[in-house]
Amino acid sequence: MGRRHALAVAARGDHGTGVARPRVGPFPPTVAGGAEAVAELVKQPYSAVVAYNDLMAIGVIRELISMGIRVPQDISVVGFDNIFAAELVTPALTTIASPRRMQGMTAVRNLVAMIGCARPRATEPVVLPIRLVVRESTARRSLNPRKPTADKHHSRTGPEAARTVPR
After folding, report:
1. What is the pLDDT of residues 89-124, one digit of tens each?
2. Which domains does the chain have, with CATH numbers?
3. Backbone angles phi, psi at 145, to 5 degrees
4. pTM
């Protein structure tokens, strides 16, 4: 499945998740294009952005930070490609890594077959494995955030309780 197809499928609706997936753009797939997209993004309250590629995601991060918007505390950002610079930006970019070598081999194999007048056997797109590389530009969000309590002596459970020393 190609990147554009995957993004188009994701943008079609909430797929039963209740999460809106509005699309902004098109913008150039560059750092400057990502920064330009932020002007559209800040018009609505988003909790996350999935950029077309890592360059755009880096531009989004840089522009959000320049506006005083914290990444990932206020908004999470995810890129696509796992380029070298994804580890160098602050915060380090969470990204989707695709198997570039396998993509190239598959493309060449299909191209050679088409040149040889081969007919496609499959009616579905070729799907290659991808992996999410979690770094610092994303944070877990709660669907039902709890309000902080004013009571300093509220009861604690779970791992935090084991670290609490009675007074």
Report:
1. 999 999 999 888 998 998 898 889 888 888 777 677
2. 3-163 (3.40.50.2300)
3. -65, 140
4. 0.69
